[in-house]
Structures are given as structure tokens and as C-alpha cells.
Design brief:
With 115 residues, this protein is mainly alpha-helical. Helix content is 37%, strand content 3%. The protein has a two-stranded parallel sheet.
Length: 115
């Protein structure tokens, strides 16, 4: 008799789901900060948790993770030598988001201001 292996899929926690629900609302051509997403997900002072949640995303997804930047309007560096940061920048630029000469997004112009 052959035994079948059951493969379980781990679903994101409720906390991550709340974060993803807010990130999904960020419109094209706008950005939100990690702290802003945390506040809107009812988790003030947990900006780092937003980063962890976005890092945990599957490689293929429709969530606009690239629209989340740090409080200075910069793309946060990752440990991959800058490849992900370049991908994020290209995606933002395709949506019309512009960077200044120092690589900073002018938040006064591009920060998402939900109603």
C-alpha cells in the first residue's frame, strides 16, 4: 500500500493579511511608507513588521509591494546586492513615479493620501 504525503500550505497570518489588504489599496502612481501601512492596518509603530510581511510574499503575486517605501521616500535596500531595489524602482518609474537626483521620491507629490 502506497502512502500519500499531504503537503500543507501555510497561509499568511491574520496580521499579514491586514497588511496586504492595506497595500492592495495603494493606487498606481502613488507610494505609501511602511509606517503609514502599519498605522492603517491598526498596528502603529510596527513599520518593520510591514517589511517582514512584504518579504514573505510569494514571488508571483499581484500585490503592489513596490509602492511601499521608507519614511524618507527611498527604496529600502535588501541583502540581494540591490537587484530587488532596481526592480522596485523600475516598476515605480513605469507608473510615473519620479526620483530626484539622490534617488528620493518627493513624498509631497507621490505619497498616497487616502480619504
Amino acid at each position: 500500500m502506497r502512502q500519500e504525503r499531504i503537503v500543507s500550505m501555510t497561509l499568511p497570518s491574520d496580521t499579514y493579511q491586514r497588511i496586504y489588504a492595506v497595500v492592495a489599496q495603494v493606487p498606481r502612481g502613488k507610494v505609501a511608507t511602511y509606517g503609514q501601512i502599519a498605522r492603517m492596518a491598526d498596528m502603529p509603530r510596527h513599520a518593520r513588521l510591514v517589511g517582514y510581511a512584504l518579504h514573505a510574499l510569494a514571488t508571483v503575486n499581484r500585490l503592489p509591494w513596490h509602492r511601499v517605501v521608507n519614511a524618507q521616500g527611498m527604496i529600502s535596500e535588501r541583502g540581494d546586492g540591490g537587484a530587488a531595489a532596481q526592480k522596485q524602482r523600475r516598476r515605480l518609474e513605469r507608473e510615473g513615479v519620479r526620483f530626484n537626483a539622490r534617488g528620493v521620491i518627493p513624498l509631497k507629490q507621490y505619497l498616497w493620501q487616502p480619504d
